[in-house]
Amino acid sequence: MEFLKHLSIQPHNPGVSTGTKWFEGAGARLSSYSPVDGKLIATTGAADRETYDQAIAQARQAFAVWRNWPAPRRGEVVRRIGESLRAHKDDLGKLVSYEMGKSLQEGWGEVQEMIDICDLAVGMSRQLHGLTMHSERAAHRMYEQWHPLGIVGIISAFNFPVAVWSWNAMIAWVCGDVCVWKPSEKTPLSAIACQHIAAGVFKEMGVPEGVSVLVNGGLDVGQWLAADTRIPLVSATGSTRMGKAVGTTVATRLGRSLLELGGNNAIIITENADLDIAIRAAVFGAVGTAGQRCTTTRRLIVHENVYDAVLSRLRNAYAHLHIGDPLDPANHVGPLIDKDAVTNYLSALDAVRAAGGSFAVEGGVLSGPGYESGCYVKPCIAEARNDFDIVQHETFAPILYLIRFKTLEEAIAFQNDVPQGLSSSIMTLNLREAERFLSAAGSDCGIANVNIGTSGAEIGGAFGGEKETGGGRESGSDAWKAYMRRQTNTINYDTQLPLAQGIKFDI
């Protein structure tokens, strides 16, 4: 596999890096097995406490220099990273696909998302703006400015092994922060490849060692990051359970956390929907990345008048899905990440049956030639009720729940009646229905779409959700403010010292 060599992936890789320098670390080595064929790709070292502390110390030293680089100059570094990602898009996309299991198109799409965020961050580097406001005191000027925070800790999940890092790192870097990245232990090689790409640019441009730190490892490394008072912001992406643990730990030291957690996303299909668009959006949303996206479509809330038509079309679409090696462009669906994910998938199917649901499209584990890894499952469709306990929880697998509704008010109530609040959509050609869905009394999610699906967000808009999704916002819009600290300044250019609120204090 030439793409591994092109990305500097070796059979045995060190697990800790401060940029151009790599360290082995004394933590338990990580082995990356591909869910595509079950084969060992390579191993990597892991941080122990000593190498972790060395890396954090290097990051602190780098911040003292990096924060003084002009923001447009930092933006130029990010621009060059974007160019390097363009040059490595084919190879990095293949590695993401092979290590994680998503289709090759999605692997390339993830790298393109990284490129896009670089472009966005470069523009931001010249627009890190504050406000100027009028003072109540004569000959005074008030304004706000933004300064970098320091070290940003990034904990990412396996399902987007490189893009989520870039959402945080590229913006944090133009803001003047330095980053310490703890990738998923299930996809360490994709992270190592990204570090090599960034380090090549950093070396050419004289970026201080420690601006980009990589610390591979297990749960203990994430716990060190969350508890570390030297790290003012921890951005964590993963399950709600993980996010609650990270958020609690960070809060006890009065640090900041940016949490992107679980989703239980729904598409409402009204009787006024364009069903061609609705079916296409629902199928990709439900089976893309084998159902392992936080924005995966998990619930399809369908008006009773079009329910049978929607179900018929879905059955036909699912019958034409190709499941297999994600590096084969002819396949739509790849494997789940590992056998534990398969176990969770099967448990969810049992829970549907126990609750009284039925399957319009049956699930199951695939076996035989091409499926030797044991991680390939059938995307399935269950007819269910929104109040089933299993429907209320996120299962990271291609299981789509069909739910009937009679009125739009009932559909919106179903949409909102889950603990999570990430992404949502409505399919309708009726303007009133669309606007009702987008109103304050409509979807309670951080993302609400009309006539597009729940997954595939663009980087220009702030990404994140409410409730148990964590409340964080990454990527576009004014999300850069999460990586900086706000400072209010008042300048007196008079010979007098008037006090605010007209207070008199004569001495």
From TrEMBL:
It holds the Pfam family Aldedh. It is an enzyme of class 1 (oxidoreductase). GO terms for molecular function: aldehyde dehydrogenase (NAD+) activity. This is aldehyde dehydrogenase (NAD(+)). Residues 22-488 form the Aldehyde dehydrogenase domain. Its EC number is 1.2.1.3. Belongs to the aldehyde dehydrogenase family. PANTHER family: ALPHA-AMINOADIPIC SEMIALDEHYDE DEHYDROGENASE. The active site is at E260. Keywords: NAD, Oxidoreductase. Homotetramer. CDD domains: ALDH_F7_AASADH (cd07130). Gene3D superfamilies: Aldehyde Dehydrogenase, Chain A, domain 1, Aldehyde Dehydrogenase, Chain A, domain 2. It comes from Dinghuibacter silviterrae. The keyword NAD applies.
